[in-house]
Amino acid sequence: MYMSNKHPKVTTIAGTADGEAVAWSSLDHFYAAVKDAPVDPLVIAGGVLVGDGDLVSRVIDLLTPPSVVDDVEVLTPGGRYVFTENRDTPADVAAAMVAAGDGRTLLDANGWDALYASGQLGDDDGDNIDTDDLVIH
């Protein structure tokens, strides 16, 4: 489970893009929080993914085989996130949400915390990102 000083236990990540919404919640949080939870929810990256059909479909496409996308731009200019091998972390989910909205996804604070805590953000040439030039989508 992802941990940060700001959010001691991140359990839910949400994003919106073009009038659609998507949310992911870790399984332990989902079953504790949802009364009469479905027996067989859509489980992706160790959590439950819900939301509007098209946006959810694009997130699933990025997180499951045979996806050929290895990395996505989450910060402009050049802030790239490299997916983990198993694509099963909260940061993987957050990056997929940003990419699924073609860079227009408004990601919640938990999603950005997961991305920054991952240590996977880098720029096109592998140098450190100059944060003065970044634009967060």
In short:
By secondary structure, the protein is α+β, with helices and mostly antiparallel strands. It contains four helices and nine strands, in the order ββαββαββαβαββ.
Question: What does the model show?
Answer:
- This protein has 137 residues and is α+β, with helices and mostly antiparallel strands.
- The chain has one domain.
- The chain is 28% helix and 26% strand.
- The strands form 2 sheets. It has a 5-stranded antiparallel β-sheet. It has a 4-stranded antiparallel β-sheet with strand order 8-6-5-9.
- A hairpin with a 2-residue loop joins strand 1 and strand 2.
- The longest helix is centred in the middle third of the chain and has 11 residues.
The biggest beta sheet, please? Answer: 5 strands, antiparallel
SSE pattern, N- to C-terminal: EEHEEHEEHEHEE
Assembly type: single chain
Task: Report low-confidence residues grouped into runs of 5 or more.
Answer: 1-8, 122-126
Estimate the global geometry from the Cα principal axes.
globular
Strand order of the largest sheet: 3-4-2-1-7
Q: Which structural class do the helices and strands define?
A: alpha+beta
Number of helices: 4
Distance between the termini: 25 Å
CA radius of gyration: 14 Å
- The count of β-strands is 9
Average pLDDT over all residues: 78
Strand content: 25-35%
Give the tally of structural domains.
Answer: 1
Helix content: 25-40%
